[in-house]
Amino acid sequence: MNTKLILIFAFILIVGSSNFAGRRAYADLIVDIRDAKMQVGSLSFVDVFVTNSSGDINVGAFNLRFNISLPAATTDGTLEFQPTANQRSSERGDADYIFFGVADPASFSSTRQDATSRRQLVQVDQVQDFINFPNGNSVVIGQTEKLLARLEIEHNRSDATPSNFEVSLDPSSTFSIFRDFSQQGIPVAPQSFATSNSNAANGTNFTNFGTVSVNAVPEPSATMLVTLSGLFAAFRRRRD
What we know:
Immunoglobulin-like; 5-stranded antiparallel β-sheet; about 10% helix
């Protein structure tokens, strides 16, 4: 089951030189952590996408912290992020990537937090020159999905029992967003967002995780039986 997280970024638009007009603009960024399947003791990845619930919003940078849940039992093994060196930044070459073609060449990092937990990863990226907005760059996020992250993961026990793990976005994660008003971009400091545990302010209830299903490796005899059955069925169809 795919689950989605609504990120609420509320900020005030400034009118005049020193007064607030009392108008508020709300941008609801939806982060979708996709479900994934893998075999015990293997490597895989999880894709993360972002959209805006309605309208458009300019995004200049992000600093995202992802977590993987603990195993439910000791026989489940452990699901971890692959080491920092193996986080290959392949998303940057994807045409659907949020900053495709305009990313700052030196800004990307995807770092496993070995000092605290190998089940936590921090990923950072930004548009080139986005700090100088509106003269600099940002990207427009609308209702078309954009690839936000590709998280390289690994399961560490080949004899583990089949199990499920959750990959979640930590509430300390931030986006840097901009809003255009009266021909002037108003930069907004990175905003924290509400999760299912802390977003009582807007009365919604969204979970913030994707499920990774870790399955047992098929027995060789079972695999052979399936292969032979397929060949026999194909042979019968030819004869008929």
